[in-house]
Design goal:
Helix 3 packs antiparallel against helix 4. The strands form 5 sheets. Strands 14-15-16-12-17-18 form a 6-stranded mixed sheet, sandwiched between helices. Strands 5-3-6-7 form a 4-stranded mixed sheet, sandwiched between helices. The longest helix is centred in the middle third of the chain and has 43 residues. The model has no long low-confidence stretch (mean pLDDT 87). With 414 residues, it is α/β, with parallel strands linked by helices. Helices cover 36% and strands 22% of the residues. The chain contains 12 helices and 18 strands.
Length: 414
Amino acid sequence: MSLLSVKSLSVTLGLPLVQGLSFTLAPGDRLGLIAANGRGKSSLLRCLAGQLDPTSGDITRARGATVALVEQDATAALLALSLRDAVTTASHDRAFLDAVTSRSLFLRAQNSRTFARPYSAARAALAEADLAQDRQFGADIAKADQLRRQAAKLKNIGINSGSDLLITKTKQLKTRAERIEAAARPAHKDPSAGAIRLTNSGTHAKALLTNNDTEITTPDLRPLFKTGQKWIGKGDRVVLLGRNGAGKTQMITALLHAITQGHATIKSTPTLALGHSDQALAQLPPKATPFDLVTAFKTGDAAARSLLAGAGIRQDAQSKPLAPLSGGQKARLAMLLLRLQQPNFYLLDEPTNHLDIEGQEALEAELLSQGATCLLVSHDRSFVRNVGSRFWLIDKKRLTEVDDPEAFFSGELG
């Protein structure tokens, strides 16, 4: 028995987002919906909830079934609901998908793929299936080329000999080659939602930042915790761990103030060049245009437009206020602006909040390959595990260094 059945569903909003999608949900299924920013996840969920009519296809709900849609920006009425009350999850949190889902749907404009596995195992199976399809495509094209070469040889022989049989055989070989080419399908390639690239301007200083038992407080000066003696060295990727309200963002704020304006107990090397991104992307003024933000770095007009296009900002949106941009587009723009600042120290507060999985993996790769020095806060467990080289934990009003984040993730610490 299925609670929900989708058959040959297509959704077009300006451009085709989904075509020919079919799947079912049975009681107990927990389906992870995976796709890059702007590829139709939210539109599909609205179709399933009855808030948006699909372009074509059918959605069948079991009698008595109620679909509740929790938007990514939850309304006040939805905040009281538990996760158990939700029917499908669209998420960019890889660890969450691995822990919660039992099936994975990779949403594609055509030929979406479903696997009866959580995200990581399903991603590996998808890569294997795409590789097999790519190999088959190569074999098919090679076979068609071989048939065409045989047809060309027979055509020459047939013309010289006047043999009608050979000419007929030539036509048959060419027809077979055309059929093989028409049926051949290359492996799916997702168009990038925009590149993420960072830079590391370098410094000769061994310690970029030192804390001499700094007291971190709330904005109204209530004490939260003390840092003890802490330092961040060149190449360190320090992850700040702690429960909500423990003071992570306040520590980021204190460090930002110390670097830009000075502080009695927080010292930064004179050669420190800061790159900062906050979780609300407040460094992006909503009335500014992407073009103005980039050209402020003296890039020149043509280079600015090329950089913005590479970051996934279309030309028609480059000179308009950036407020209407998606969260993913704003996050990629923020990473572009960080790169143009040429920092040697990154202060990152929830940098993956608005990035799709492709963007998260690209940011991870950049931080690692550039040898970047950073202090970051993130609830993304996969990102923390992949990027962090040191871990600071806010626990019992003290900042302590721990070997890894696993005890905190499991609830044993913090």
